[in-house]
Amino acid sequence: MRTLHVVTHPEATHHVDGVVGGWHDSELTATGTRAAARTARALRARIPQEAEVELYSSDLRRCRQAAEPLAELLGVRPVWDPRLREKSYGEAEGRPQAWLDRRFVPPPATGERMDHDEGVPGAETKAACARRVHAAMDDILSSPCEHQIIVTHGGSLTFVVGAWIKLPLTAAGYAAFGAAPGSITTLHEDDYFHNRRLADLGDTRHLDPSWKGAPAWPRPRTSSWIRRSQGSRKAGSRDSVRRKTPRSARKRRQGPRRQRARPGGPRRGPARQQGGAVRPAPVPGGARPPRPAAPHRRRRDRATPPRSGDGPVRGPGRAGPPARAARARRAPRSARVGRVAAGRPPPGRGSPRAPRAARPQACHRTAPPPRPARPRPPRPSAGPTALPA
């Protein structure tokens, strides 16, 4: 893959003084010098160490000062080409920008734009500037080098990109590729189709003081890379799943937990606070106070086995709550009452108990006798009723 890095010179004195640039031979400011060093480091990070590099630059002083750190860091010899200069503004160069604004004639919306006279004596037309930049680009692109660097001006950048994509001069009058001072524009050409594209226009991330360095270029433009760069991950996708560390490994990595002091006092036994940790108070004789048993737990002798039906044993000598399976296997209540009445222990019990008093009634109640029907009063007859005299 062939890559062309186009660098626009950083801040110069004519930017700060507010005068017209063009062919005016201004120099970089202190800020521009620092930006040139950052640009050199950024390109060094993007270009492989073993790759062959060529460096071309405009012969004006501000571009020379921007290309010198690149030549020193990359170990190449720059080629100074006057055809990469900015568009000439004739008598307006070095004068205040307001002087040019009062005399400048903008090009028409339709019609001739490349050979348009801008109203400044001695100024270069857009067509003349485009022709010399295209001629310089033809010589630069004739070399088979994979990585080439061009240090030029902001106005000439449009014609550099136009020559890269083979834009005709007749259509260049409407083209404009603007970039900030000190920016990097990246152009690519693939090895299979030999298509040329504008990969990045006016990149200024390297000018940020907090910027650490540029990644290797070109970046892998895969679908996962695009999802990570845009910050849009689908729920449940491979990129969004995070592997969790097991809890045992996290505890082992964190170490033992320290008991913190509580406002209501220590958790167990008398304690005192020393150095931010709760430590038990000393006991006369050097012995440690016994740990009190929890009130919700029932202690038993280790030699006493648990009763059957109490469920699984939790620890030595401790019985847990009754198990569901043991409760499900118990005999019905009628059978248990009958066994107790006969003096036998109920099923599911290991030790006999005192028999209950025999109940005189049967285990199952008999149905009560039906109630007699209530006598109903006779219904009155439907005849006429005698009136009192």
| Average pLDDT reading | 75
Radius of gyration using CA atoms only: 49 Å
The count of β-strands is 8
Strand order of the largest sheet: 3-2-4-1-5-6
Q: Can you walk through the features of this model?
A:
With 389 residues, this protein is an alpha/beta fold. The chain is 26% helix and 11% strand. The chain contains 10 helices and 8 strands. The strands form 2 sheets. The chain has a 6-stranded mixed sheet with strand order 3-2-4-1-5-6, with helices on both faces. Strand 2, helix 3 and strand 3 (79-80) form a beta-alpha-beta unit. The model is unreliable at 214-242, 269-277 and 313-319 (pLDDT under 50).
Short summary:
This protein is α/β, with parallel strands linked by helices and 389 residues long. The chain has helices at residues 13-17, 30-46, 61-74, 97-103, 126-141, 154-164, 223-230, 247-254, 324-328, 333-341; strands at 2-8, 53-57, 79-80, 147-152, 184-189, 196-203, 271-274, 277-280.
Topology:
Layout: E1 2-8, H1 13-17, H2 30-46, E2 53-57, H3 61-74, E3 79-80, H4 97-103, H5 126-141, E4 147-152, H6 154-164, E5 184-189, E6 196-203, H7 223-230, H8 247-254, E7 271-274, E8 277-280, H9 324-328, H10 333-341
Parallel strand pairs: 1-4, 2-3, 2-4
Antiparallel strand pairs: 1-5, 5-6, 7-8
Helix pairs in contact: 2-3, 5-6
Key terms:
six-stranded mixed sheet; 10 helices; 26% helix; 389 residues; 11% strand; elongated; alpha/beta; two-stranded antiparallel sheet
